[in-house]
Amino acid sequence: MIALSIYPGFLVKPTGDVDRISAYLFFWSMTAGFIRGVGFIPKTRLLAIIFSGPACLITFTVSVVNLYAF
Fold first, then answer.
1. Fewest C-beta in 10 Å: which of 6, 10, 36, 61?
2. One Pfam family, short name please (predicted)?
């Protein structure tokens, strides 16, 4: 979260284009990590799943794979 906040150029592909899908997934991962990190667990089941620890890990992994594999 800190690295992406300091250097957003991390989301730029080697061609110079911004990878928007990876950006959305990184921001979702950052949000889920922040919400879960402060200890807040939403009461709604859907929001609890969207902002869970596994969702944070999955979205981070998919965004990194999307950024460097495609």
1. 6
2. Cyd_oper_YbgE
For residue 70, what are the contacts with CB-CB under 8 A and spacing of at least 6?
none
Nearest to 40 by CA among 55, 59, 53, 27: 53
* Locus of tokens 């150029």: 9
Query: What global pTM score does this model have?
Result: 0.81
**Mean pLDDT, contiguous 10-residue spans, the chain (70 residues):** 82 83 92 92 94 94 86
